[in-house]
């Protein structure tokens, strides 16, 4: 298997240097997390597709915070990339003390009209690569008897969402998978955490093709009437929860209220209501 190129190493890398690995780190919540951990003087390994942006981030954070930063440019929507990333960390002599599976993408619209290739790539990114990275790095953490894994799901994981059928289903998997692992890993002192953000002002809608009519119908537009958080707010809530050793957090007070409400209503009723609202608009 070909090794991913070592595109950037800021400062000299010592053997078994401890790092926090963040996927989807070139923008949005992932980038905000990187800055928050950098402020705490934690060394970083950033993963995303945009090598130029990652290179810039690495250099900026290394200079600003005096930490060691590296990156790997990889598209986790493609099979085999998670395995290559794991192999590259071994090659560089890195110890991933914290894995943050943040990378993800969505889609919106009538399922049968969406491109099948794009939907399958979304499942690869949101589920398969997340599972692969978790499996490989969890094995290392269990041997050391310490470590942290944070998986990012979504408010979409609490309800079936017509016209976002594949995306919401993928996030249900992430939520259930992470909550199950939380209990499995307690005997090994590996801390597992689930983060469920709601609508956040990132490039998510644009990347998902939802920044137009589809976004309006799904009530997912970025406007003053829509309750949303900034990536920095989500990252700050994550770190506060992590400091308290929590295993589960829904970011944003409105989102926490909505998650509790969703547990009281039949999913069939919620799905029917979403579908009617979408078609009406």
What does this structure look like?
With 281 residues, the protein is α/β, with parallel strands linked by helices. The chain has one domain (8-280): Rossmann fold, CATH 3.40.50. The chain is 47% helix and 15% strand. It has helices at residues 28-39, 51-65, 81-91, 116-144, 165-184, 204-207, 213-217, 231-243, 253-262, 267-280; strands spanning 8-9, 17-23, 44-48, 69-73, 94-101, 147-152, 190-196, 248-250. It has an 8-stranded mixed beta sheet, with helices on both faces. Helix 1 (28-39) packs across helix 8, helix 3 (81-91) packs parallel to helix 4 and helix 4 (116-144) packs parallel to helix 5 (165-184). The longest helix has 29 residues, at 116-144. The termini are far apart.
Task: Provide key terms for this protein.
281 residues, alpha/beta, Rossmann fold, 8-stranded mixed β-sheet, 10 helices, 8 strands, 15% strand, globular, disordered N terminus
Q: Topology, please?
A:
Blueprint lengths: L7 E2 L7 E7 L4 H12 L4 E5 L2 H15 L3 E5 L7 H11 L2 E8 L14 H29 L2 E6 L12 H20 L5 E7 L7 H4 L5 H5 L13 H13 L4 E3 L2 H10 L4 H14 L1
Parallel strand pairs: 2-3, 2-5, 3-4, 5-6, 6-7, 7-8
Antiparallel strand pairs: 1-4
Helix pairs in contact: 1-8, 3-4, 4-5
Return the string of H and E elements. Answer: EEHEHEHEHEHEHHHEHH
CATH class: Alpha Beta
- Strand count: 8
CATH H-level name... which superfamily? Answer: NAD(P)-binding Rossmann-like Domain
CATH topology: Rossmann fold
Number of helices: 10
Please list the strands of the largest sheet in the order they lie side by side: 1-4-3-2-5-6-7-8
Q: Determine the mean pLDDT.
A: 90
What is the CA-CA span between the terminal residues?
Answer: 50 Å
Q: Helix amount, in percent? A: 40-55%
